[in-house]
Amino acid sequence: MAAHVLALASGVYDFVGVTVLRDHHESIVVRIGELMSTPLIIAVSAWKGGVGKSTTSIYLAALLARDTGARVALVDRDASRNLTAMVAQRPDLRDELIARGVHLISGEEIPRGRDAFPYSVIDTPPGDGAIASLRDATLVVLPVKPEDQSIGNFVKHLEQLDDARLAVSPRMRLLAALPTMVWRTGRSLVRQHQEHLDNIAAIAARRHPPLPVLPYVPLSTRVMNFDLDAPEYRPVAEEILRYVAIPV
Ligand SMILES: Nc1ncnc2c1ncn2[C@@H]1O[C@H](COP(=O)(O)OP(=O)(O)OP(=O)(O)O)[C@@H](O)[C@H]1O
Ligand SMILES: [Mg+2]
Questions:
Q1: With a threshold of 0.85, does the pTM exceed it?
Q2: What does the pLDDT look like over 212-248, one tens digit per residue?
Q3: 143 CA closest ligand 1 atom index
């Protein structure tokens, strides 16, 4: 068995009485009975285009594979197949993903049954196809850029998710917001971006239960160039692993 027990996010605080997360992450509980047989399917979703969905999907798949040693499916569900094209243009990136145990699947279906992966990451399209592409997802990560339009779309997307969630994928839970492309000079943030981050945190905190906010991803040429050893997504992956996996 893998060295981790999968934990599912749940609105049920005391399903088995084991809270694995601190503070507002309490809504994530270990559901032992389900966990052994349930693949974890993380969708990266935003209504707005260009907020870092595909980039986040690639890094999450690569880091989950490396940190857990498990096979990870990276599913390109965006009909424009941007992610597939990005990987095709970069044989070094493709080889690195394969070496880490990431299997790129360009299409809608996630392997099931004996071929199932313990972890899948779904890259989804923006706009009208965003919600439908979340079917099968168990957890959703919501990238949002520190700018008014992206934050407005984030709020709209949360409303749509609240309306459609149960119909699309009853087991699906919102895992966290992920601020992306945050402009940092040295160790400090550009003031306007700090204000936007505060705004994102306030929006997330107003939800019931509160939506966690992952460590922000800085704007970075290493990320833009898909250097998988870049440090920018490391705290994000570590935090997600704290949500979804505990050592046994
Ligand atoms: N942290 C980052 N630092 C610098 N550039 C980034 C970062 N994250 C993403 N980018 C760049 O921003 C652009 C948009 O990113 P990406 O394609 O991941 O967004 P997307 O949400 O998948 O877009 P679409 O909605 O068109 O599919 C890309 O050129 C990508 O390289
Ligand atoms: Mg994309």
A1: yes
A2: 999 999 999 999 999 999 999 999 999 999 887 644 4
A3: 21
